[in-house]
Write a structure and sequence with these properties.
This protein is mostly helical and 121 residues long. The protein contains five helices and no strands. It has helices at residues 11-21, 46-59, 64-71, 75-82, 94-119.
């Protein structure tokens, strides 16, 4: 026969544990009596979906020489080039792949800052 012992754990520590694990717990009312608000997660933005899903699909319909040259500069291929152990003539070198990923991140941050400045006046 197994015996289960349950310890009393404060709600704040349970919430921190759940957040680390990727779960969410319902919010308890704060000292002022109002529950903290939590925004619902939003759907991925269309440029993100277009960049990662639609553009690689469209380039697969191009002639193979064009498609291979363009595919090297997609984020997934650039990331793969960083960790490639054996050199491959058809992919980017590790440092060029890293530079491409940094450029994608810089463009995303710049667009985010621009949109934030524009919309959040």
């Amino acid at each position: 026969m197994t015996t289960t012992i349950r310890a009393k754990v404060p709600m704040d520590s349970m919430r921190k544990t759940a957040l680390v694990a990727g779960a969410s717990l319902p919010s308890a009312p704060s000292a002022s009596g109002s529950a903290p608000s939590s925004a619902a997660p939003q759907a991925p933005s269309p440029p993100f979906v277009g960049l990662l899903l639609v553009i690689p699909l469209v380039t697969s319909f191009l002639p193979s020489s064009w498609s291979e040259q363009a595919a090297k500069y997609f984020p997934a291929e650039a990331g793969t080039a960083i960790f490639r152990v054996a050199p491959d003539a058809t992919s980017l070198s590790p440092w060029v792949g890293f530079t491409v990923l940094v450029a994608y991140a810089a463009v995303a941050l710049a667009l985010g800052a621009l949109l934030l400045a524009r919309r959040d006046a």
